[in-house]
DNA sequence: CTCTACTCCTGTTGGC
DNA sequence: TGCCAACAGGAGTAGA
């Protein structure tokens, strides 16, 4: 579910509750998500201070004062939400108010400041791991990731270099996290529509001028989505529980049979399946 | 190396 | 109302 804009929105929402604060109590309510949790995860987290929350691709990294970093991935349906951040003082009451734990609340952090951070993930495609902060970049899940699309390394030049000779459809190639990290099904569809590139085009056959537009539109759509707090279709929520609202700005995603929003275009949005996933596009203005 | 199909899991939706 | 298939924002892995 969550692509780069959703993960960045969650990171920003968690920061006020977590950064600079110790995890007073970490509760791990099941042994695994997609993979088993690391050994003694709850003990290694309890008492640790979160020095910094950062993001790499669709991963959140919490750098701890213990010398370790907590790696978090939300998978398809993962949520991290904060409660009790601005809890009012209640005389005679020690604990802040938090909602009752719900189904699929797998990991809970009670922060020393009183906030509670809850990781909820019905499908359990999410993941958590702990590793030394110094070697975090070489973690198996991070080592092969391509550049951040909003960073300086990403450019049309980079796209041209990596797409040269590739015969696979551009849609599938942009979903490959080794090419560029952080895009998912929604934002690939949206960026290709904005760049007027057909999702079935071979990656290596896209003209340099088109790649200029594509690189620009990838950055723009991600930035706009971050500003909107991400896209909420089903599970995704911001850290405060609110919906994102970029879904109202989709031009093609989940808009099959609707008119193409490109000015002057009379096309209709179509849906096809590529490598098992839905692609939405306009066959009239995407070539 | 490149590419596709399959897999993990739960929940929701749409057709009959 | 019930049943069942299709589908969902990810991504590692096996195999062609």
Automatic annotation (TrEMBL):
UniProt entry tagged with the keyword DNA damage: yes
Catalysed reactions, semicolon-separated: 2'-deoxyribonucleotide-(2'-deoxyribose 5'-phosphate)-2'-deoxyribonucleotide-DNA = a 3'-end 2'-deoxyribonucleotide-(2,3-dehydro-2,3-deoxyribose 5'-phosphate)-DNA + a 5'-end 5'-phospho-2'-deoxyribonucleoside-DNA + H(+); Hydrolysis of DNA containing ring-opened 7-methylguanine residues, releasing 2,6-diamino-4-hydroxy-5-(N-methyl)formamidopyrimidine
SMART domains: Fapy_DNA_glyco, H2TH
Residues where DNA binds: 104, 123, 166
Positions annotated as active site in the UniProt record: 2-3, 58, 277
Cofactor note: Binds 1 zinc ion per subunit.
Domain Formamidopyrimidine-DNA glycosylase catalytic: from-to ranges: 2-126
Coiled coil regions, renumbered to chain: none
Keyword DNA repair: yes
Pfam hit, one: zf-FPG_IleRS
Enzyme Commission identifier(s): 3.2.2.23, 4.2.99.18
Cofactor(s) recorded in Swiss-Prot or TrEMBL: Zn(2+)
Signal peptide: none
Domain FPG-type: 251-287
UniProt keyword list: DNA damage, DNA repair, DNA-binding, Glycosidase, Hydrolase, Lyase, Metal-binding, Multifunctional enzyme, Zinc, Zinc-finger
GO molecular function, one term: oxidized purine nucleobase lesion DNA N-glycosylase activity
NCBIfam families reported in the protein's UniProt record: fpg, PRK01103.1
Subunit structure: Monomer.
The protein's role, per its UniProt record: Involved in base excision repair of DNA damaged by oxidation or by mutagenic agents. Acts as DNA glycosylase that recognizes and removes damaged bases. Has a preference for oxidized purines, such as 7,8-dihydro-8-oxoguanine (8-oxoG). Has AP (apurinic/apyrimidinic) lyase activity and introduces nicks in the DNA strand. Cleaves the DNA backbone by beta-delta elimination to generate a single-strand break at the site of the removed base with both 3'- and 5'-phosphates.
Family classification: Belongs to the FPG family.
Protein name, per record: Formamidopyrimidine-DNA glycosylase
Native organism: Pararhodobacter zhoushanensis
Encoding gene, per UniProt annotation: mutM
């Amino acid at each position: 579910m969550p692509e780069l804009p959703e993960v960045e929105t969650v990171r920003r929402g968690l920061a006020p509750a977590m950064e600079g604060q110790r995890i007073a109590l970490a509760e791990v309510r099941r042994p695994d998500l997609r993979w088993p949790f690391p050994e003694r995860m709850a003990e290694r987290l309890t008492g640790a201070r979160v020095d910094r929350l950062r993001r790499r691709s669709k991963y959140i990294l919490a750098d701890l004062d213990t010398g370790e970093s907590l790696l978090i991935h939300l998978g398809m349906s993962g949520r991290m939400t904060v409660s009790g951040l601005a809890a009012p003082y209640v005389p005679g009451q020690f604990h802040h108010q938090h909602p009752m734990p719900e189904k699929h609340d797998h990991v809970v952090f009670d922060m020393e400041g009183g906030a509670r951070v809850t990781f909820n993930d019905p499908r359990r495609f999410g993941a958590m791991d702990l590793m030394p902060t110094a070697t975090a970049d070489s973690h198996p899940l991070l080592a092969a990731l391509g550049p951040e699309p909003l960073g300086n390394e990403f450019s049309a030049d980079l796209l041209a270099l990596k797409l040269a000779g590739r015969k696979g459809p551009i849609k599938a190639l942009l979903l490959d996290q080794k090419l560029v990290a952080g895009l998912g099904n929604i934002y690939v569809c949206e960026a290709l529509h904005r760049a007027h590139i057909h999702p079935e085009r071979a990656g290596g056959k896209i003209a340099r001028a088109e790649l200029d537009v594509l690189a620009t539109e990838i950055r723009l759509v991600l930035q706009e989505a971050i500003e909107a707090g991400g896209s909420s279709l089903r599970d995704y929520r911001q850290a405060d529980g609110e919906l994102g609202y970029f879904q109202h700005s989709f031009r093609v995603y989940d808009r099959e049979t609707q008119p193409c929003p490109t000015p002057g275009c009379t096309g209709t949005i179509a849906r096809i399946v590529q490598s098992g996933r839905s692609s939405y596009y306009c066959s009239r203005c995407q070539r």
